[in-house]
Design brief:
Structural class of chain A: alpha+beta
Strand content of chain A: 15-25%
Oligomer: heterodimer
Order of helices and strands of chain B: HHEEEHEEEHEHEHEEEEHEHHHHHH
Order of helices and strands of chain A: HHEHEEEHEEHEEEHEHHHHHH
Number of strands of chain A: 10
Low-confidence stretches of chain B: none
Largest sheet of chain A: 6 strands, mixed
Strand content of chain B: 15-25%
Distance between the termini of chain A: 28 Å
Strand order of the largest sheet of chain A: 3-4-8-6-7-5
Low-confidence stretches of chain A: 66-70
Number of helices of chain B: 13
Radius of gyration of chain B: 29 Å
Largest sheet of chain B: 7 strands, mixed
Number of helices of chain A: 12
Mean pLDDT of chain B: 85
Chain lengths: 390, 416
Amino acid sequence: MIRHLCKIVWNRKRANALTALQIFISFLLVFTTASLAMDKAGNYWRPLGFSYENRWVVNFHPDRVSGRVGGEKPPVSRRQVYLALEGFDWIESVSSADYMALPYRLGLQALFTVDGRFVSIGSVSDQFHQTLGLDLVSGRWFGEEDAALDWKPIVITQPLSEALFGGEDTIGQKIEEWQGSNERIIGVVSDYRRLGEFSDPGFFVFTRQGEEENRGNFLVKVRPGTPLAAQEQIDRRLKAMAPGYEVNITTLADSRASSFKLTLVPLFALGVVSVLVLGMVALSLSGVLWQRTTLRIEEIGLRRALGGSAASIYAQLAGEIVVVASIGVIAGLLLVLQFPLLELLNYTSGIYALSLAFAALVIYGLVIVCSLYPGRLACQVRPVEALHHE
Amino acid sequence: MLKNYIKMALKVLLRRKVFTCISLVTISFTLMVLMVMTALFDHVFGSFPPETRADRTLILQSIKGEKLGEKSYKVSPPSYAFLKRYVSSLTQAEKVSISEISWSTKATFRKGEKIESRFKHTDGVFWEILEFDFLEGRPYTVQEVEEGQRVAVINEATRRVFFGGDQAVGKHIELKDQAFRVVGVVSNVPAFRLMTFADIWVPISAQKTDDYLRYDSVFSGYKALILARSAAEIPLIKEEFADVLTRVEYPNPDQVNHISGGPTTLLEHTLDGIFSFSMLTSRGFIALVGVLILLFMLLPVVSLVNINTTRILERASEIGVRKAFGGSSLTLVGQFLVENVILTLLGGALGLVFTFLVLQMLGASDIVQYAEFHLNHRIFLYGLVMTLVFGLVSGVYPAWKMSRLHIVEALRRRKQ
């Protein structure tokens, strides 16, 4: 049966080549869309490693155009700002972190790569893990006793520790890729996916900033139910302490929402376009099949006259197009399987297999559905009519 | 002759309505996606108010500073004093404006509501290089900036929030504990126009300190917009700046004693950005997007070719008769191409309507703040070119195939 189908397809190889090409491209399109979506969806279900609810970022900077270095001594120390923030009874916890360490901030300060991915580094104060709700898996977090050490303590994320040391005996190790550093790992947190739910497992290194420094922005955890209007109190208090300074407050929930939009909007657009393009392929495929079937009325009529069932006609038409589609799918499969070898994409093998299976399923489903209507038309032909055709 | 072809084309199209519909849907949809992409690209990079002179405007918004002989370097926006010294003096440029690179946010609390407005410091030339659409009032002048007057230009949205949409010129707006007199109101600038976007524009001299005038670092947070006399003179400006860089005096040579980089057009800058972005995301991501776009454009063409090739068989008897009476292959190919182009033009017209609807939806969805997308003659022209290319490409192979049909074979086939 299959040999017979292949023979029929081979006999009309020119006409079928175009259809196979169409299927090949459609397969690649479905695969890329599906794998992107699955990669993002896979990330979505992973734990984020921190909480964003009721967290505000307070940015306190002199009133001049950003990016300036040096300058005169500020009217208040950052420690005083820290204490002032701690003074609000609706603020549960305060810490400071530089630009890189805050969630939902894009930026690239990377000194080395692991497995081809950049490792981000950010400095944070001792309370940062409480304020952000980081989950310590092993070792310890920074403390005041670290100030006396003659090496720099660092805390890394679990995914990074797995990539570096296979997740074993991380504490006390040095990172070899980070050349010329005097750092040692003192703790591991479960994860820290800074850029949000859709980002890859976090490759992040926390360094400690001293009690007196409080560099960067302040992160505060407010009591649940605190209204946004309370930001005005912070604004007033800090401006009163340091005239000529500006205060800027954002909530992590807002930052998360805009980061969501940034990922979902393009993905959604891609999905819509892919579905519509597939619809187009389906339309043109049914058109082509329909046209070809009408040219084969005599043959089908003859089969009917000799007692061929309707089911066998459907099977014949569907079988032929499935053979053609297989050529496209196999070609696509061979191409896609080169990607991991070329290290083009860093998907996990699970996502690869799933997307390939999904794409194949969609393509075969599509061609079979497309062959149904022409098949029905063919079955409606009365054998007498068909035999009179010539 | 052409009239005959067109008449015939329409008749053929009407004969098999289902096939015509399939082709039209395919064509119009493909062209719609291409035209929407063109429109988005055009709105971000093309000449749109206020950046109506994008084709001859250069931007200097980051320089690379290093100490020769050392490995580390810093890529950062230049300082005001640096730009004033070395860019404002460029003789090849028609005008040079210095403004803040990003914007600052000002929060106003009103009855427990938080209103955020973004403001940008600019000089007076800013308003001469860019053509903002003034709803009322005027821009602030070079002189007002020099005198350090507290004046501001606001956008429509800010006027609505602060003044209830009433006339704002002459009224005051509080910013950084100071009252700024509103001198003009402009239409909203979409948020993707990073060079110009803000809610409130104020003079660069309205900062509380004069720090920005001191040349104590080459880096800070400013950019220069350089207007060339014509697009052709852009290379001259780049050359002149490269020459100026060799004569720079460094305020702190123990940290930075060499600068590289130069002004770029907006498009060049964005391409650089995409390149460095690709280092951030997974390696193949950008390649993947490119492949996707290519595949997307190829697929409709292949679909159309496929359906056209099949449809020709339907007209075998007609072709047979034409050939038998001496019609050359070339005329047949020509006729079929004309038919196909007519079909794609129809599809293109439909696509234009869809594009209009999609752009309206995008504007209304508020994905980008203040964004409005319009169809303009540029997008229409690109669309027309794309339509013609599409029609020709998808018609050539089927037409060639048709012209090669054997006369006997063709005549033998009966009309289905």
